[in-house]
Design goal:
The structure is a single chain. By secondary structure, the protein is of the alpha/beta class. Helices cover 41% and strands 12% of the residues. It contains 17 helices and ten strands. The N and C termini lie far apart (70 Å). The relative contact order is 0.14. It binds 2-acetamido-2-deoxy-beta-D-glucopyranose (3 copies). One 2-acetamido-2-deoxy-beta-D-glucopyranose binds next to loops.
């Protein structure tokens, strides 16, 4: 069976399933293929705040409502119990996770190596965001997560609604009064949303002191991940596959999505190693802190909308960093053009440090350089370890030395320079 007949077999099965269910009225794919046990539930589970508190740090859990009604669970280490600096003005920093990840990713390596803890102990007011749809942000003022409309968003909406809401909320707190800008740190999708926000609503550049973008993902032309390159032609365009796959909750337990994903991904035995190796390849250098793995597995994947994945696959196919492709007809309605508009990254004039690596198979060096060349205030930091990969920014056992310490040093330099005035 070749890959095309394999894919079409899945479609045929889905069509039969949908047809039989259609006797009860309009097809609701979500209900039809959804497994009720598939959803992330926080009941009885430890949160990021529980974990940071267990290490002795002051911990807060905030619920932040976005302009379009999503309610985000955002965590905060407001000050350091070691410094007892709660009555001083603390510079604010926001950490934003990657795709299928969540705030827990930042604290997996514990108080000695984890960036949030190190920042708190350096005197910062630390916020950890959670994008809509992740374990901590499955809440809305009117929509249930069982309503497919809840899942109609990509990272564009995370950028312009979620990130803006978190920044403004942090600046409105008591510590935020009198401050008008924050430091930002993003990993992977946490960088994509930065590029999308700062080019779409350029006024937000003035709310940034320094930004640190780990494994920056925007243009994806030279990306080497075999899985993404393989899926791109199927799902990176408006077609029957992507319509079926779109606007769903993506989790390994969602049988409908996973059946579709894996049947497209491995219709024949040849591609099986590609899929299985996808996770492993994120840490190809073999310098992962294995002690942190059990906690990583317990907290990931944290969920997302399949539209976020489709949007990335569209970028990989088109070679452009641009808005979501709804297909010609809807693009004309939404954007007034047949093709989605490109993000004007030339407008990102905030001070953006891009941290990138040769072995990153989701953020190719050529693509990072291309985006950086178009940004007026980009500073490049090339990781010297040739085996440094996408996941190393989170779980390499030397993140403290190679990433966290230099990042904090840059923030400190900024703070010292601007406190003199
Ligand atoms: C690895 O992760 C564990 C668990 O969070 C942590 O205790 C340890 O300090 C981390 N770093 C190294 C270098 O082992
Ligand atoms: C959803 O948000 C509301 C309003 O902040 C809150 O009261 C409720 O506990 C949240 N529900 C969940 C499941 O987080
Ligand atoms: C990157 O893309 C350019 C332009 O498409 C191409 O010429 C080059 O060979 C690619 N490099 C790699 C390593 O894929």
């Amino acid at each position: 069976m070749n890959r095309f007949t394999g894919g079409f077999l899945v479609l045929a099965l889905l069509t039969v399933g949908a047809y039989s269910a259609a006797l009860d009225g309009p097809i609701n794919f979500f209900k039809l293929y959804d497994n009720p046990e598939a959803h992330v539930s926080l009941k009885g589970k430890e949160t990021t705040a529980d974990r940071t508190a267990s290490h002795g740090y002051p911990s807060e859990h905030h619920h932040i409502t976005t302009e379009d009604g999503y309610i985000l669970g955002v965590f905060r280490i407001p000050y350091s119990h070691k410094l007892q600096n709660q009555n001083e003005k603390r510079p604010i920093v926001l950490l934003q996770h990657g795709l299928t990840s969540c705030s827990d990713a930042w604290i997996l390596q514990g108080p000695n190596d984890g960036l949030p803890y190190m920042l708190a102990d350096a005197g910062y007011d630390v916020w950890m965001g959670n994008a809509r749809g992740t374990s901590y942000s499955r809440n809305h003022t009117t929509l249930s997560t069982e309503n497919p409309i809840f899942w109609q968003f990509s990272w564009h909406e995370i950028a312009i609604y979620d990130i803006t809401a978190i920044i403004d909320y942090a600046l409105r707190t008591e510590n935020g009064q009198g401050q008008d800008a924050i430091h930002y740190v993003g990993h992977s999708q946490g960088t994509t949303v930065y590029f999308a926000l700062m080019s779409t609503i350029p006024a937000y550049n003035y709310k940034i002191k320094t930004a640190h973008l780990f494994a920056p993902v925007a243009i994806m032309k030279n990306l080497s991940s075999p899985l993404v390159r393989y899926l791109g032609p199927y799902l990176g365009h408006r077609n029957a596959y992507s319509i079926l796959f779109g606007s769903q909750e993506f989790l390994p337990h969602n049988e409908f999505v996973m059946a579709l994903f894996f049947n497209i991904c491995q219709p024949d035995i040849m591609w099986r190693p590609v899929c299985e190796g996808a996770m492993k390849s994120l840490y190809s250098g073999g310098r992962v802190n294995m002690t942190a793995m059990p906690e990583a597995m317990a907290t990931h994947p944290a969920g997302c909308s399949t539209d976020q994945m489709l949007h990335y696959l569209q970028e990989q196919q088109s070679g452009y960093f641009r808005q979501y492709d709804h297909g010609t007809k809807k693009n004309l309605q939404v954007y007034g053009s047949e093709e989605p508009p490109e993000y004007p990254v030339e407008l990102i004039n905030s001070l953006a440090h891009l941290w990138y690596a040769d072995s990153d198979d989701l953020a190719a060096v050529e693509d990072v350089l291309q985006i950086a060349n178009r940004m007026p205030n980009a500073v490049l930091h090339h990781m010297e370890d040739p085996e440094w990969n996408h996941g190393d920014f989170a779980l390499n056992w030397e993140v403290r030395k190679y990433v966290n310490e230099p990042v904090i040093a840059i923030m400190e330099e900024y703070e010292i320079e601007y406190s003199r005035t």
